[in-house]
Specification:
By secondary structure, the chain is α+β, with helices and mostly antiparallel strands. The protein is 17% helix and 29% strand. The strands form 15 sheets. Strands 12, 13, 15, 16, 17, 20, 21, 23, 24 and 25 form a 10-stranded antiparallel sheet that branches.
Length: 1459
């Protein structure tokens, strides 16, 4: 009861904590688990032994290690102490206690020192490693840990400190305030510790009581019997009602304990008993060394003779229950009456010899200290066996040697007398092994029985034989077997089979006679007792201790229900760990010494008890004074088995702690069964129960179970007390109410009393009734009419015809009233002719007070109150009916639902709770809802009232742009979080797409997704949201282009070594990816120096985007005229804000010189006048031509030759050449050459010089390869003469002759298949070569027909085309005549014409225009897409879509990319 005041005052905090779910430790399968190891701190005083336990589950073959780290804050190193059973440390004070195949490992430290304080780590060598830390604190025994002197008169000043005892009882440090008397009295203990320390109250109570018997004081204070156990240090207040009953007596109990501390003596310590003769026992003990303990005047020693050798009777109790149920008995008698001897000795002595005992008899010894104020409690019982008397022949012969005694050579005796079987020699001729003999051994060796048993009695000197029958007789050997002990066996028959049970006793007599066995171990005692383990200690035997090889520790439960069998542990030394004990049980233990010959006699037997947990393992319900059984009610109500411990008026506090959170859903059933159908509200009012909890006193849980538990936690004990008290006083709820006859003005009722009230007297009944407008019962308080009855039947008259009535019954007696019975709904007849003799039974009431909690577009949440009329022994669940009515009125049967509604018209859901969450409803719709109660016996109530609820209207979804966190540039390798924020009702389904791939989706308005280690391929993030269904679905989408920043990196490996001749144009290039675009710097290594290269007339820097890879660039160093000094290593250094990349290239300049190109032939072919041919002598010298006025008219022709078959427009655009002059860059004529000369001549010339080294020429030898099938032609060509090694792809263009719809494709091979051609059309095609820097010019067009042989074009086109076009031109000239000639002449410089040498079929000037991009599968105004996918050409290279352009837009689409 100690701490009860704190417990009760803070009951609200305690009960609230029960609602917290238990956290379960994770146990990794396949590896050891240390989770069950206690985390309590270990405190000892210097010089004492410390025991550090570690519980290891699933150890397998792993090794358990103990390590130590001291209290030095700078030290983080653990020193290894033990590994398994091996002691690693050199400190001999350390040892390991462990039973093989058991879970508990204990590190024992003897004679502890202050330096032993620190952290001890118990760990396994598994992977992963499992470890747990234990804290040991060693306190200096010289330190005064007690507080100031207490006052003898004022309880509040008591300040006793029992922390040391609490440490021995394994009380955790958190609970040590309970070990201070002043903290308990002054209520100084924090609230949070009460619940955590409740399991340790038994140990704390034992410490505070100090082994003193305060029972007489408590009885003088009129302490109730259930509370008396605390007065003797036995905390058994496990139930809630016990706590409340003893709450008012906390102060007097504490006062008695405080008084006993000052006046009563403490128990004797370490009591030991040793048999010294057949009739004497020596009892030794130690006195308390605490100077503050009251002195003892004398000690009383009680010796009780046991009736049998293994008597299990508890001499201190009339029953043999567990320790927590031990009765209290005064053993202060000092008399001897047959089997009990009581001796009182002076307190100055510390040992005593009990005389006049019976030989070879088991005694149980107890002691207690006595003074003039009272006595201590008895010590633990010890059982000891007096010595057996010795016969003359058993005495040690006078000629005994000083050496260790030995056995005679019995085997030789048997062999000499004719025993030939080794099996018989091994078993029946060796007293050490005879006890293992089996029935078959006895039968096989029967022919030699007269020899073997006679030789077994051989004397040590081998000159005679000894009769051992007296020893056997004393030890209870059967008379049939006495011949074996005498050694005169004549023959063996079936009667001797019983002797196998006595074989060990028989051989022990032989071994004892020869004095080869060690004596029993000395001073056996139990030093530490835990809930499930104990430490036992002993000293070596007095005799032959050096021969002992091991010890047997025998232990067993002393309860009469347990098997009368000892469990045996093997130990090599003292101390020893006994584990796998049960909390709160009584045990007996002793030890025997074993040597090579056998086991010694047992030591003194010690009786000890393990501390019990506050939670009892058994439920003890004393219901003899009442007929009602609340537990049986819960069983009938199908309460889950795990929750049944809560269904008792004697519910344990620990059960409430452990089970309330998992049984909260069964609270209504528990409350109904606890009320027993009785109205406990008046009692609850008298006990000041909160008005909010009065309904619980009437068996009604009208809110959510968690809410009810929270609201009524402070009143829980008072409510339970009222329920328990009312069970034997108040009448129970009437049952079986029914109407057996109904007229238009009356109804005849009958019922039965509650089962426990069948024989009760002075019980009356009251019938309550009232009119109802429908078949829904009235509230009990709305039944305004009453009729009293003394019998179980009544007639209600004066009713109105054709009217509905609600009726119920209550039982009354002198002490109070019952709860309402089940409700009866009847309807009176409308006339005398319609009187009803049908039996109408009462039923469970319907749920009521339906209330809307919340509604959304597709959900409705409702709650209701449970039925007011319900059987107590049933479990109630509910059926919720609902349907959409869309604003229409409920008519007919829908308005008033019957007991079994039409399930075809209503949806239904089952729930055990008084709330329901309906989902997946239709938005903006009206729903009707009703609830019906159903019991676990499938009895249904009528339905509740109908509630109409509208769902919210829908709101179309809206979506914000994707939000990227953190804001700012996105850098490759970092993590970003993308949030999609959608709005709308109902909640939309939000999806996240990355680069068009779905990566996340959930029903939420806010979706966050983390992209880890972002890479440069991330380009687009899209959010998509949709809500609604079917035609009402609404969706929204938003996208965000993403540009990932990343440092430069090499994508394509450029040639590391480039060879060039003197005077040649050299290209050094590196291909690098980076965002933002890297800056490039070129360096040359001259010997040991690295020199940066700057642009000049000879060095030019070119940067172009890569045509295939995004954010990739080709950086080129162009050396226009290579010289020997240019030989060496070059560094292409690229960098941006996120990094830097250096690429090393090598240029090797050979001695070979380059001959300048002679362009004279090209100039002649173009018709350059003779006076200007001089500028074409080596290469076309445009600058020289610009200085000659006579050559201005030849500039178009010179530009054509200077272009050298390449298209330089990409370079010209980069140098910002006007669009009107770009045709010169491709070698074509311009409209106003003079303007281009002035604005762009130098830039165009520079591009020509740059392009000579970078751009390829057009392919050559274009021809028809072969005809494939009916509609496919393969065309072929060879690489260009100029810069063929620089070609990266070829572009093929084709169209029907005369059509403006152009088709194109790209390949990296030297052939291409034109597919899906029409047989009745002629086709023309051209080819270009290209790379990253630009393109070549077109080849001459080639015309082909599927029905004719292919015709190759010449400089004027093929002959057939010439004839056809000639006829067409002639016809036009005849029609247009002179007007056309004049018009042509007037606008010569305005109208642009193509070069007539390029072929007639491609003279349309718009064909030669170019754009910056390649457009695949695109459509523009005036154009259409033809031959998509497989309908386009198929060659050896890449086959993309085909773009067909018509009308005036052809020029913008057919032109080729420069990139």
């Amino acid at each position: 009861m100690l701490g009860t005041t704190v417990l009760i005052n803070n009951l609200s905090t305690i009960l609230l904590t029960l609602l917290v779910l238990v956290l379960f430790c994770h146990n990794v399968k396949g590896i050891p688990n240390l989770n069950e190891t206690s985390q309590e701190a270990i405190l000892v005083f210097t010089g004492e032994d410390a025991f550090i336990d570690c519980k290891v589950k699933n150890q397998q073959n792993y090794t358990i290690l103990f390590k130590f780290m001291g209290n030095d804050p700078d030290s983080h190193k653990f020193d290894l102490l033990t590994a398994g059973n091996i002691i690693v440390t050199s400190d001999t004070r350390f040892s390991i206690l462990h039973q093989k195949e058991h879970d508990v490992w204990v590190l024992n430290i003897k004679n502890t020192r202050l330096s032993d304080s620190g952290i001890y780590m118990c760990e396994t060598n598994s992977k992963p490693q499992q470890k747990i830390a234990r804290l040991l604190t060693v306190i200096d025994s010289a330190t005064d840990t007690t507080d100031k002197t207490l006052s003898d008169t004022v309880l509040a000043e008591i300040n006793h400190n029992y922390t040391e005892c609490c440490i021995d009882e394994d009380v955790p440090e958190l609970c040590h305030p309970f070990c201070l008397m002043s903290a308990i009295v002054n209520n100084d203990i924090p609230q949070r510790t009460v619940r955590q320390c409740l399991p340790h109250f038994p140990g704390i109570t034992r410490c505070l009581n100090g082994g003193r018997d305060n029972l007489q004081c408590c009885r003088r204070q009129n302490i109730p019997v259930p509370c008396e156990s605390v007065c003797v240090g036995n905390f058994t207040l496990n139930t809630v009602t016990d706590h409340f009953q003893c709450m008012d007596y906390a102060a007097p109990v504490l006062a008695c304990i405080a008084e006993g501390i000052e006046t009563l003596p403490a128990q004797p310590l370490d009591v030991m008993v040793e048999p010294i003769s057949t009739t004497e026992l020596k009892v030794k003990w130690f006195k308390t060394d605490n100077p503050r303990d009251a002195p003892a005047d004398s000690y009383q020693i009680n010796a009780t003779q046991l009736h049998t050798f293994d008597d299990l009777t508890d001499t201190n109790s009339n029953n043999n229950k567990k320790l927590n149920n031990l009765s209290i008995k005064d053993n202060s008698r000092s008399v001897t009456n047959g089997t009990i001897m009581s001796v009182t000795v002076n307190a100055t002595v510390s040992e005593w010899i009990l005389k006049d005992m019976k030989p070879f008899t088991m005694y149980e010894i107890q002691m207690k200290a006595i003074n003039k104020f009272g006595s201590s409690l008895p010590t633990n019982s010890m059982r000891v066996l007096t010595l057996a008397p010795e016969t003359d022949v058993q005495k040690i012969p006078k000629s005994q040697s000083k050496t260790d005694p030995k056995l005679p050579n019995i085997r030789k005796c048997c062999k000499d007398n004719g025993v030939v079987l080794d099996r018989c020699l091994d078993t029946m001729c060796d007293p050490v092994r005879t006890e293992t003999a089996s029935l078959s051994d006895l039968m096989i060796c029967a022919p030699w029985a007269n020899v073997t048993f006679k030789c077994m009695s051989l004397e040590t000197t081998e000159d005679g034989f000894t009769d051992h029958s007296s020893c056997c007789q004393q030890r209870g050997v059967s008379p049939v077997c006495m011949s074996l002990c005498k050694g005169n066996v004549k023959r063996i028959d079936f009667r001797h089979f019983i002797c196998l049970e006595h074989m060990s006793t028989y051989t022990n007599c032989i071994l004892s006679h020869h004095k080869v066995l060690a004596s029993e171990p000395q001073d056996f005692r139990v030093s530490n007792v835990h809930h499930n383990w104990a430490i036992v200690k002993w000293r070596q035997p007095k005799k032959l201790a050096h021969t002992v090889t091991k010890y047997y520790i025998h232990w067993r439960e002393t309860s009469s229900e347990s098997p009368n069998i000892y469990q045996v542990d093997v130990a090599s030394r003292s101390p020893h760990l006994i584990d796998n004990l049960k909390p709160g049980y009584r045990y007996e233990a002793f030890v025997s010494a074993v040597n090579d010959y056998g086991s010694s006699e047992g030591s003194v037997r010690v009786i000890f008890s393990t501390p019990g947990y506050s939670t009892a393992d058994e439920r003890e319900l004393d219901e003899s004074h009442m007929a009602y059984n609340e537990t049986a009610c819960c069983l009938r109500a199908s309460l889950p088995k795990k929750c049944q411990p809560l269904c008792s008026y004697k519910v344990k506090v620990q059960d409430v702690f452990n089970l309330s959170s998992i049984c909260v859903d069964s609270l209504a059933t528990l409350v109904r069964c606890a009320t027993g159908g009785r109205n406990h509200v008046p009692c609850c009012r008298r006990r000041d129960v909160s008005s909010e909890c009065l309904n619980v006193c009437a068996g009604l849980v009208d809110t959510a179970p968690l809410v009810t538990a929270n609201r009524c936690s402070q009143d829980f004990g008072r409510i339970l007390q009222c329920m328990e008290e009312g069970t034997g006083l108040l009448p129970g709820m009437p049952i079986g109410l029914h109407a057996n006859y109904i007229t238009k003005n009356s109804v005849h009722l009958q019922w039965k009393p509650a089962l426990e009230d069948m024989d009760a007297k002075h019980v009356s009944y009251q019938v309550r009734y009232g009119k109802t407008d429908n078949m829904i019962p009235l509230h009990p308080l709305d039944h305004t009419n009453t009729k009293n009855a003394t019998q179980t039947k009544a007639i209600i008259d004066g009713l109105q015809p054709n009217t509905h009535y609600s009726v119920y019954i209550t039982a009354h007696n002198l002490y109070g009233v019952s709860l309402p019975s089940l409700v009866l709904l009847i309807k009176t007849s409308d006339s005398d002719e319609s009187d009803q003799r049908l039996v109408v039974h009462s039923k469970t009431g319907p749920p009521h007070s339906l209330e809307l909690i919340r509604q959304t577009v597709d959900t409705i949440t409702m709650k209701w109150l449970p039925p007011l009329y319900v059987p107590i022994d049933t479990t109630i669940s509910y059926i919720v009916y609902y349907k959409a009515i869309n604003g229409t009125a409920l008519t007919g049967s829908s308005t008033m639902m019957s007991t079994n509604p039409d399930k075809n018209n209503w949806f239904s859901l089952y729930t055990p709770y008084t709330t329901i969450y309906l989902k997946n409803l239709t938005y903006n719709t009206e729903y009707a809802l009703a609830v019906q109660a159903v019991t676990d016996r499938n009895d249904t109530s009528s339905t509740s009232e109908i509630v109409l609820v509208w769902t919210d209207p829908a709101i179309p979804t809206a979506l914000q742009m994707p939000l990227i966190i953190p804001a700012g540039p996105i850098v490759e390798g970092t993590n970003i979080t993308v949030m999609c924020i959608a709005m709308g009702t109902p909640v939309p389904k939000t999806s996240l797409f990355v680069n068009g791939i779905l990566v996340g989706q959930q029903n939420s308005r806010h979706m966050a997704y983390t992209l880890a280690n972002v890479n440069r391929n991330l380009t687009v993030i899209s959010c998509y949201a949709v809500n609604g269904e079917g035609k009402d679905a609404h969706s929204a989408q938003s996208s965000l282009d993403v540009y990932v920043r990343f440092k430069p990196s090499a994508v394509v490996t450029a040639p590391q070594v480039t060879t060039s001749a003197i005077g040649a144009t050299t290209r050094l290039f590196c291909i690098v990816s980076g965002n933002p675009q890297p800056r490039v710097f070129w360096y040359k290594q001259n010997n040991t120096d690295i020199v940066q290269i700057y642009g000049n007339n000879n060095y030019n820097f070119i940067t172009v985007p890569h045509s295939e890879f995004p954010m990739t660039y080709v950086f080129t160093l162009l050396i226009k005229s290579t010289q020997p000094a240019d030989d060496g290593n070059y560094m292409c250094t690229t960098e941006n804000d996120f990094g830097k990349l250096v690429t090393t290239l090598t240029l090797q300049v050979t001695e070979q010189r380059v001959t300048p190109r002679n362009s004279t032939s090209c100039c002649v072919e173009q018709g350059v006048s003779q006076q200007c041919l001089g500028v074409c002598s080596l290469d076309v010298d445009i600058e020289s031509a610009l200085s000659r006025p006579e050559c201005f008219g030849e500039l178009d022709k010179l530009m054509n030759c200077a272009a050298d078959g390449s298209d330089h427009r990409q370079c010209c655009r980069r140098r910002q050449v006007p669009n009107g002059c770009l045709r010169w860059c491709a070698g074509l004529r311009v409209g106003i050459p003079s303007l281009c000369v002035l604005s762009s001549a130098r830039e165009i010339i520079s591009c020509f010089q740059e392009g000579r080294a970078l751009l390829p020429g057009p392919p050559i030898n274009i021809q028809i390869g072969q005809f494939i099938g009916d509609n496919t032609i393969r065309i072929e060509w060879t690489p260009p003469e100029k810069n063929a090694e620089l070609v990266q792809w070829y572009r093929v263009f084709w169209r029907p002759v005369g059509s403006r719809d152009l088709m194109r494709n790209q390949t990296d091979g030297l052939s291409f298949d034109l597919t899906n051609l029409e047989a009745d059309k002629m086709y023309e095609f051209v080819v270009k070569s290209g790379n990253h820097y630009g393109l070549s010019v077109f080849t001459d067009p080639l015309v082909v027909s599927l029905t004719q042989s292919p015709l190759h074009s010449t400089s004027l086109g093929n002959k057939l085309l010439k004839v056809m076009l000639g006829i067409a031109v002639g016809t036009v000239l005849l029609i247009m005549s002179l007007t056309a000639i004049i018009y042509y002449y007037k606008f010569y410089y305005i109208t642009n014409k193509s070069n007539p040498t390029r072929g007639v079929s491609f003279e349309n000037p718009t064909y030669l225009k170019d754009t910056n991009t390649i457009q695949f599968n695109d459509t523009t105004s005036g154009g259409s897409v033809l031959n998509n996918n497989n309908n386009n050409g198929s060659g050896n290279g890449v086959h993309n879509g085909v773009v067909v352009v018509g009308n005036g837009a052809a020029a913008d689409v057919i032109a080729d990319s420069q990139t």
